[in-house]
Amino acid sequence: MKQVAANMAGTVINVLVQPGDEINEGQDVLVLESMKMEVPVQAQASGKVVEVKANIGDFVNDGDIIVVLEED
């Protein structure tokens, strides 16, 4: 499985994808808030979303897996 990881620590303020969505590399998948800045997290690979592991209000750390993509 391909995975999308958080690129920084922060609180999830918006989830932009859901299971079943087809996403492209570079597409925003969710938005984190850190130090009063909104930072989009982008997919590092293309594919179909299988699972979203983060919800609005969750705190994630740098490197945490937030989205799982179907393997080609």
From TrEMBL:
CDD domains: biotinyl_domain
Record's protein name: Acetyl-CoA carboxylase biotin carboxyl carrier protein subunit
Alphabetized InterPro entries for the sequence: Biotin_carboxylase_complex, Biotin_lipoyl, Single_hybrid_motif
Pfam families: Biotin_lipoyl (PF00364)
Entry annotated with the keyword Ligase: no
PANTHER family per the UniProt record, alphabetical: CARBOXYLASE:PYRUVATE/ACETYL-COA/PROPIONYL-COA CARBOXYLASE (PTHR18866), UREA AMIDOLYASE (PTHR18866:SF128)
Originating organism: Brevibacillus formosus
Taxonomic lineage: Bacteria, Bacillati, Bacillota, Bacilli, Bacillales
Keywords: Biotin
